[in-house]
């Protein structure tokens, strides 16, 4: 018998980007065997056994000859089980179990799905980035992946239930099944509303500034002061994701294998709240050869909330530097590299001191414990946060008596105005103003300059701190409709919005 | 042989330093041994292992300690370490008489400053290290008024209340206003001085934040310790220190104290000695006043003002207070409005802004900044407190 070759299209995913893959199969005489070339990862290598079982239980025959699968291009890493169907079809084609009509049809298609042992098609993670590289083809996926695949608009999306059926559809013997009913878009994803927050005016202002100016926010307060509750309300203040951002965020989630919202596309800015015990890899991404996106990428376009900031491993916090400065995270591993988007608003939360703090006279900590706590919040870390507000445990008056504050919609409208002003004036949000741009767009009035000078001369403000204050003061002034020089009282307010951590006990 | 130091340190002084470093030889045991022999003799006995039978269990450890490298210091090294520190043995004529008659007197005192200050008992002003601005103000005011009335202020040189009391006392001795050429009557009149009783060696400043205060107290008054120079601030030394504070006091005033802590130990020591205890009442909501309020409930005398303390001492309050001149810039307009929001309780930014409506956060922040720089307010981790007096 002659040696036979077949090739089938599929894709793999590295980081958040898909890469097209051609599965080539060669069946030759010789000792029965099955090898996969082209740098498959462990999951992909296991396709050998899944595919064999699926082919046999679908009523095809398994060629007991020497089977060689090559995943081209052979230099890049292939990951995951999405190549299963393509491998199975390649083997069947090479073994001449498929008609010519099927072989012709296959050329137009690409296949992204896992096979179960009984031949069924299963959904896989990362379908949307993969389908995005196969836009000129008809992409066949498991029915659970249909919505996700359609988001990136390939030429056509088709679903199949199992391998046997898929072959029949390709042969034109049975029509392609109807796509699953679009999942009902339950009106809007519910976002917690600011109206639930009692009191906490300083923290509310902090949230508004973070949303309006793109400032990173640190919430300082004792346990029970509602830091998490406050942070959860920030995504509602941020602008909804536009079409591109939404697709990007959705693809990141898809690549990470995280469940997508019912409507498929992510429209509300995400909020990620990783626990402080997380590993460095979980924070920045990587790990498996797929270079899975980490928390910084999953928070892209939204909020990364780090509760108990001081408990995070210093290495994990240090890794935030690149995403905070460049908006991306670059992963380099021996086998592959990837650049993942990671632009987010960082919200940290911490106790004011190890014992949790409270009004003066209630702190339990000794000087050594305070010093240790301060060391954890090194200057460079605190420098990330333009706005540092204190959240207090609400008193009975606030819980019962105070009228509700503004709701998310009102604040959101203001946020959008301030963002528009900043973008029109300087092309970036106020939180990203640096150096000369700061001088040009955030000039401070004479009175305000005097205030800053005093702070600098008494050593209560550093050079870096000065930039932070000016950025925040710019946002405060924009919020109040003062678009020229920044008046002194906005400088004073910005100065008041920088809480200290574990401040020295007085003699 | 001439000593380069101000005080000729006799061999007994050097011997007592060596004895105090022996393990298991606390003040009480050393005192009873010193009733039998001079420190010099004691040291020789210990070195040769000829200690009384009741100390036999320690004998080997003591002679081993004395033979170890650490303790084989020359007399000159010890003299250098003592420097200007004066050593008073319990039978020394300069040793304070009322301390000698105490139930538990220190066998030796190490002294820096004016020994004369120890001749008469003072008033102990003690309290928590975790003080509020209210407590600091009260302690400082009591310290100041006592000093004006020529009463020495005994305290522990710790953070918080202790430091505030001493600062109050020190304020009386320093010229109020260097620009005021007339001089201040309070400086001319003889006034009380701070007496610091510390747990570590006199050359081991603890807490370090109080370094400046230690020097100021030694210059203006006196700092004493029963531990030789170089002794670290071991935990067990603080309760021992507190008994000396109680022994040196005619009255113990507790300004702020939690339910348990060093001040409560001082109170127990005072009660043991029949020294009256006074307490400054505080808000029932503050942890810092839990202990003092409990003392009041249990029958301590109330000190609502320095006058109450002076009354217990049988001293009349001095009518015109030469120190009570307001040196701070008097706030006006919006600043005055913001300051008027403050009573004794600390307030956070939210509540201040709410109380100052319709002022904006920015306007309030401007005023707060000014009031803080003028010394009317103090800002600690998100809380603002009104500062009552400046000392």
Q: What does this protein structure show overall?
A:
The complex is a heterodimer of chains A (507) and B (391). Chain A is an alpha/beta fold and 507 residues long. In chain A, the strands form six sheets. In chain A, strands 11-14-17-10-18 form a five-stranded parallel beta sheet. In chain A, strands 1-2-4-3 form a four-stranded mixed beta sheet. In chain A, a hairpin with a 2-residue loop joins strand 1 (4-14) and strand 2. The radius of gyration of chain A is 28 Å and the shape is elongated. The mean pLDDT of chain A is 87. With 391 residues, chain B is α/β, with parallel strands linked by helices. Chain B is built from 17 helices and twelve strands. The A-B interface holds A 199-202, 205, 220, 352-353, 357, 359-364, 367, 390, 392, 451, 454, 476, 487-490, 492-493, 495-496, 499-507 and B 128-133, 135, 159-160, 163, 207, 209-210, 212-213, 256, 286-289, 345-346, 348-350, 353-354, 360-366, 368-369, 373, 380-383, 385.
Layout of helices and strands:
The complex is a heterodimer of chains A (507) and B (391).
Chain A: E1 4-14, E2 17-28, E3 33-37, H1 42-45, H2 47-57, E4 66-72, H3 84-94, H4 100-106, E5 109-112, E6 114-115, E7 121-122, H5 127-132, E8 138-141, H6 146-151, E9 156-159, H7 163-171, H8 201-213, E10 217-220, H9 227-232, H10 234-237, H11 243-256, E11 271-272, H12 280-284, E12 285-286, E13 292-293, H13 295-298, E14 303-306, H14 314-318, H15 321-326, E15 328-332, E16 337-341, E17 345-350, H16 367-376, H17 379-382, E18 387-390, H18 396-400, H19 408-426, H20 435-441, H21 446-457, H22 463-479, H23 488-496
Parallel strand pairs in A: 3-4, 5-8, 8-9, 10-17, 10-18, 11-14, 14-17
Antiparallel strand pairs in A: 1-2, 2-4, 6-7, 12-13, 15-16
Chain B: H1 11-20, H2 27-34, H3 39-47, H4 56-67, H5 75-82, E1 86-89, H6 97-100, E2 108-113, E3 122-126, H7 133-148, E4 153-155, H8 161-173, H9 185-188, E5 194-197, H10 211-220, E6 222-225, H11 237-247, E7 249-254, H12 262-272, E8 277-279, H13 290-297, E9 301-302, H14 306-312, H15 333-340, E10 347-348, H16 349-355, H17 361-374, E11 377-380, E12 383-386
């Amino acid at each position: 018998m002659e040696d036979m070759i077949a090739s089938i299209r599929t894709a793999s995913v590295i980081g958040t980007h898909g890469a097209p893959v051609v599965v080539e199969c060669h069946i030759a005489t010789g000792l029965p065997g099955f090898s996969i070339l082209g740098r498959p990862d462990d999951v992909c290598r296991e396709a050998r056994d899944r595919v064999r079982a699926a082919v046999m239980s679908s009523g095809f025959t398994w060629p007991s000859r020497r089977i060689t699968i090559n995943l081209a291009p052979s230099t890049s890493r292939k990951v995951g089980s999405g190549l299963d169907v393509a491998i199975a079809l390649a083997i069947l084609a090479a073994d001449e179990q498929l008609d010519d009509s099927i072989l012709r049809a296959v050329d137009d298609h690409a296949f992204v799905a896992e096979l179960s042992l009984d031949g069924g098609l299963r959904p896989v993670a990362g379908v949307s980035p993969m389908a995005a590289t196969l836009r000129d083809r008809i992409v066949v996926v498991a029915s659970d992946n249909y919505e996700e695949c359609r988001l990136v608009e390939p030429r056509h999306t088709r679903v199949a239930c199992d391998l046997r059926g898929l072959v029949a559809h390709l042969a034109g013997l049975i029509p392609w099944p109807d796509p699953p009913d679009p999942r009902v878009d339950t009106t809007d994803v519910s976002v917690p509303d600011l109206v639930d927050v009692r009191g906490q005016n300083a923290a509310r202002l902090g949230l508004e500034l973070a949303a309006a100016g793109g400032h990173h926010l640190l919430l300082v307060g004792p346990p029970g002061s509602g830091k998490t509750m406050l942070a959860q309300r920030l995504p509602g203040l941020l602008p909804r994701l536009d079409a591109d951002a939404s697709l990007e965020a959705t693809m990141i989630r898809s690549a990470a294998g995280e469940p997508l919202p019912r409507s498929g596309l992510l429209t509300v800015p995400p909020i990620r709240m990783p626990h402080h015990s997380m590993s460095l890899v979980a924070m920045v991404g990587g790990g498996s050869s797929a270079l899975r996106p980490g928390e910084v990428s999953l928070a892209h376009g939204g909020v990364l909330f780090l509760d108990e900031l001081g408990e995070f491993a210093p290495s994990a916090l240090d890794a935030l530097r690149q995403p905070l400065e460049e908006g991306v995270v670059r992963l380099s591993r021996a086998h592959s590299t990837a650049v993942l988007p990671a632009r987010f608003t960082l919200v940290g939360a911490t106790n004011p001191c190890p014992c949790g703090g409270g009004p003066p006279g209630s702190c339990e900590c000794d000087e050594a414990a305070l010093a240790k706590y301060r060391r954890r919040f090194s200057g460079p870390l605190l420098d990330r946060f333009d706005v540092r507000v204190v959240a207090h445990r609400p008193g009975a008056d606030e819980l019962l008596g105070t009228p509700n504050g503004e709701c998310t919609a009102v604040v959101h409208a203001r946020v959008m105005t301030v963002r528009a002003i900043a973008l029109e004036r300087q092309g970036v949000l106020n939180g990203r103003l640096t150096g000369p741009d700061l001088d040009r767009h955030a000039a401070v009035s004479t009175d305000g300059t005097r205030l800053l000078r005093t702070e600098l001369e008494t050593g209560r403000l550093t050079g870096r701190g000065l930039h932070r204050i000016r950025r925040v003061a710019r946002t405060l002034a924009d919020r109040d409709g003062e678009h020229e020089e920044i008046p002194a009282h906005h400088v004073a307010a910005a100065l008041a919005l920088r809480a200290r951590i574990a401040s020295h006990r007085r003699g | 042989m001439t000593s380069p130091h101000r005080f000729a340190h006799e061999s007994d002084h050097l011997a007592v330093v060596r004895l105090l470093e022996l393990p298991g030889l606390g003040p009480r045991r050393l005192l009873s041994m010193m009733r039998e022999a001079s420190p010099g003799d004691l040291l020789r006995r210990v070195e040769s292992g000829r200690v009384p039978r009741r100390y036999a269990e320690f004998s080997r450890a003591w002679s081993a300690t004395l033979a170890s490298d650490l303790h084989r210091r020359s007399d000159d090294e010890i003299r250098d370490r003592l420097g200007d520190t004066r050593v008073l043995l319990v039978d020394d004529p300069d040793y304070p008489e009322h301390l000698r008659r105490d139930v538990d007197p220190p066998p030796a005192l190490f002294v820096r400053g004016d020994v004369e200050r120890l001749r008469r008992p003072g008033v102990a002003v003690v309290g928590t290290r975790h003080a509020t601005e209210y407590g600091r103000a009260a302690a400082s005011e009591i310290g100041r008024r006592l000093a004006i009335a020529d009463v020495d202020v005994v305290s522990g040189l710790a953070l918080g209340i202790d430091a505030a009391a001493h600062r109050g006392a020190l304020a009386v001795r320093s010229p109020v206003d260097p620009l005021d050429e007339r001089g201040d009557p309070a400086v001319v009149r003889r006034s009380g001085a701070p007496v610091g009783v510390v747990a570590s060696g006199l050359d081991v400043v603890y807490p370090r934040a109080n370094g400046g205060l230690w020097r100021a107290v030694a210059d203006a008054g006196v700092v004493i310790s029963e531990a030789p120079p170089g002794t670290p601030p071991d935990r067990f030394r603080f309760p021992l220190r507190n008994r000396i504070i109680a022994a040196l006091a005619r009255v113990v005033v507790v300004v702020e104290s939690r339910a348990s802590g060093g001040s409560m130990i001082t109170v127990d020591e005072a009660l043991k000695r029949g020294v009256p205890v006074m307490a400054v009442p505080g808000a029932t909501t503050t942890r810092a006043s839990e202990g003092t309020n409990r003392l009041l409930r249990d029958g301590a005398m109330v000190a609502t003002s320095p006058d109450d303390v002076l009354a217990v001492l049988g001293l009349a309050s001095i009518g015109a207070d030469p120190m009570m001149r307001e040196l701070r810039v008097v706030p006006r307009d919006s600043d005055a409005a913001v300051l008027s929001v403050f009573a004794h309780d600390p307030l956070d930014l939210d509540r201040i802004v709410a109380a100052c409506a319709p002022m904006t956060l920015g306007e309030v922040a401007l005023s707060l900044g000014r009031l803080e720089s003028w010394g009317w307010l103090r800002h600690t981790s998100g809380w603002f407190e009104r500062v009552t007096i400046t000392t």
